[in-house]
Amino acid sequence: MFEETEGYKTLDPLDLKILDLLQTQGQLSNTELAKRVNLSPPATHARVKRLENDGYIDRRVAVLRSRKLGFDLLCFIFLSTNIHQKEQLEQLEGEMNSMPEILECHCLTGEYDYLLKVANRNREELEKFIRKLNLLPGVNRIQTSLSLREIKFSTALPILTE
Questions:
Q1: Do residues 128 and 144 lie in contact, with contact meaning Cβ atoms separated by under 8 Å?
Q2: Distance (Å, rounded) from C-alpha 95 to C-alpha 52?
Q3: What is the rounded CA–CA span in Å between residue 66 and residue 101?
Q4: Which of 62, 79, 143, 151 is the most buried (most CB within 10 A)?
Q5: Interhelix angle for 30-37 vs 41-53, to 10°?
Q6: Mean pLDDT of all residues in the chain?
């Protein structure tokens, strides 16, 4: 059923179907999930637990509507640093990781070192946040782009190739 490939197991089609359903409809009960994949509920539960234990499922969350909660500004912030020492980079990344406004932080190649996806309620909050970023050690350049509107949002990976 499973074949090791560079540290990862090759998943069978049933596992992929379960993962696809969970990533798009995470609120499904085990019974409903079992019906959709044509397995018994205990067998489905065992597969889901194995997928969790093997690290294929990181966590299950509710995706909230940011605007309904008053977060009207979504920003993408490019950040450059002048640090190259591992310990200093780890400190900087730890500080960014602890900032609740940062939804995502990516280390990049190219002109900038990091790309941050940031949620703020308004311009004043954004200004305060950028001041916080400017105080971080080694930050020497910040470029902020505001999202005017969202064209597509998804957390679902294209794992099924039907």
A1: no
A2: 29
A3: 12
A4: 79
A5: 100
A6: 93
Q: Which residues contact 10 (CB under 8 A, 6 or more apart)?
A: 2, 3, 4
Q: Which residues of 16-28 are buried (b: 16+ CB within 10 A; e: fewer)?
A: bbbbbbbeeeeee
Closest listed residue to residue 102, CA positions, set 86, 84, 90, 114: 114
Q: Structure tokens of 65?
A: 């509507």
Please count the other Cβ atoms lying within 10 Å of the Cβ belonging to residue 15: 21
The answer to whether 73 and 125 are in contact (CB under 8 A) is yes
- SS3 string, the chain, reads CCCEECCEECCCHHHHHHHHHHHHCCCCCHHHHHHHHCCCHHHHHHHHHHHHHCCCCCCCCCCCCCHHHCCCEEEEEEEEECCCCHHHHHHHHHHHHCCCCEEEEEECCCCCCEEEEEEECCHHHHHHHHHHHHCCCCEEEEEEEECCCCCCCCCCCCCCCC
Quick check: 26 and 57 in contact, CB under 8 A?
Answer: no
Bridge pairing between strands 139-146 and 73-81: antiparallel
**Other C-beta atoms within 10 Å of 68: how many?**
7
User: Model's pTM, two decimal places?
Assistant: 0.86
Tens-place pLDDT, residues 30-49 = 999 999 999 999 999 999 99
